[in-house]
Amino acid sequence: MIIDLRSDTVTKPSKAMLEAMMAAKVGDDVFREDETVNALETRIANMFGKTTALFFPSGTMANQTAIKLHTNPGDQVICDKYAHIYNYESGGVAFNSGASCKLIEGHRGMFTAQQVIDAINPEAYYYSPSRLVEIENTANRGGGSCWDFNEILKIRKVCDEQDLGFHLDGARIWNALVEKNETTEQYGEVFDTISVCLSKGLGCPVGSVLVGDEAIMKNALRIRKVFGGNMRQAGYLAAAALYALDNNMDRLVDDHKKAREIGETLSKLSIIKTVEPIETNIIIFELNKDVNEKTFIQKLIDKNIHIISMGTNKLRIVTHLDYTDAMHNKVIEILKNLTV
């Protein structure tokens, strides 16, 4: 039994999801004739109270399209220093949009409205114009941390006062919604654009969706084409997303529960220096300085458990829908008896 806890992207479609995919009614989406893609886009747009949604093959492409919609070359994006758009999208902000990032020293991937105010550049011509504020919920590098929605509202007020766009990288927004008992409508009212991932917590094989109102989204289809993201009979993938929205949302609480139980076990081990607060399905922990990271990882691999390194003796575990109760019990038992 191989237990893969590197990411929640490692899941495979269930039998029921595959059946839904195979039964999809499809067409050529470049002609906008795939009715399953159209149904998915309409559904997610309605969920967030937006007029427009567009299906993408990846969350990175959805985020990069949003940034291009909000900015012109030379503009600046305000985001956390741990933001996915800055750290894990291959320099796409600069490459695709000719924009730069003003990095905020946040807390667990999150920051305050006052920090946004402090990050806005002066209007003098020799500064990059601040054009967009971007946040990530949940914050990956923050250990799956969930934003305080009241702080989000305060940042929205700053954006309104300073004429800034507001984009949400909602790669794991479903986890935040379930954990905080918040709604898609709340988020749709606050953000200009939102990218939501379907291939993480919801377990789809491929796909993200970008939502926004018509004015900001009018060039999204063209930009997706420029990025090479147009697909043909994409309804097979969209059908997986529709299935996931119906069947895989409420069960996210199970992932969160298992994550907390893993965190509790790790915190009792003498070889562990710290375990960061766990709110959703991500566990980030740090080994003591005298513990070799590669040795620790190899010990787990020898037991068929796979996790991922974040560097400097920090490691990450992510729970997901393919991580069964039997797997969980085995992981807990192995961790309790692990020696390095």
Q: Could you walk me through the main structural features you see in this protein, from its secondary elements to its overall organization?
A:
- The chain has a seven-stranded mixed sheet with strand order 2-8-7-6-5-3-4, sandwiched between helices. It has a four-stranded antiparallel sheet with strand order 9-10-13-12, with helices on one face. Strands 1-11 form a two-stranded parallel sheet.
- The mean pLDDT is 97.
- 41% of the residues lie in helices and 18% in strands.
- The protein is built from 15 helices and 13 strands.
- It is an alpha/beta fold and 340 residues long.
Short description:
With 340 residues, the chain is α/β, with parallel strands linked by helices. It contains 15 helices and 13 strands.
